[in-house]
C-alpha cells in the first residue's frame, strides 16, 4: 500500500540535493567581482548532477505516462530539454582550458576512443552512456532543435 507523506517529509534525498544546489548557488553569488570562472571540475560535477536528474525524469515520465498521458508527455519534454542542457554543459567542459598537462593532452572528446583519465574520462563516459539511453527514446529532431555550440 502506498501512503502519501506530508510535504515536509516527502522525498528527503531529493530535498537534500535541492538544498545542496541552493547552498552552492548562494556561495557563487558574485558579491565579490573577483569570483573565479567555472572550471572543468565544476562542470564535471554539474554534468554528473544533471545526468542523475535525467535518469529521475526518465523514470517519472515512464511511471506517469500510463495513468496520466498529458503529464507524462510534459515530463518527456522536460527530459529532452534536460538532455540538451547536459549536452551544452559537456560542450562547455571541452571549451574550457585544461587544469593540468595530462588533462590538456586528453582534453578533446573522441567518441571512437576513450579519453585518458579523469575528469575527461568520467564526463565523456557518462555523456556517451546517457546519450545512448536517450537516443533509444527520442528522434534526432527532438534532440537538436537548436544549438549554441561553437565551431573551433
Helices and strands in order:
Blueprint: H1 12-27, H2 40-64, H3 69-95, H4 101-105, H5 120-135, H6 140-143
Describe this structure in words.
The chain is built from 6 helices and no strands. With 152 residues, it is mostly helical. α3 (69-95) packs antiparallel against α5 (120-135). The N and C termini lie far apart (56 Å).
Briefly say what this structure is.
This protein has helices at 12-27, 40-64, 69-95, 101-105, 120-135, 140-143.
If you average the pLDDT, what whole number results? 80
What is the end-to-end distance?
A: 56 Å
Radius of gyration: 18 Å
Helix fraction by DSSP (H/I, runs of at least 4): 55-70%
Class inferred from helices and paired strands: mainly alpha
Which geometry do the CA atoms define? globular
The proportion of strand residues reads under 5%
Secondary structure tally: strands:
0
Uncertain segments = none
The helix tally amounts to 6
Largest sheet: none
- What is the succession of H and E elements? HHHHHH
List keywords for this structure.
152 residues; mainly alpha; 6 helices
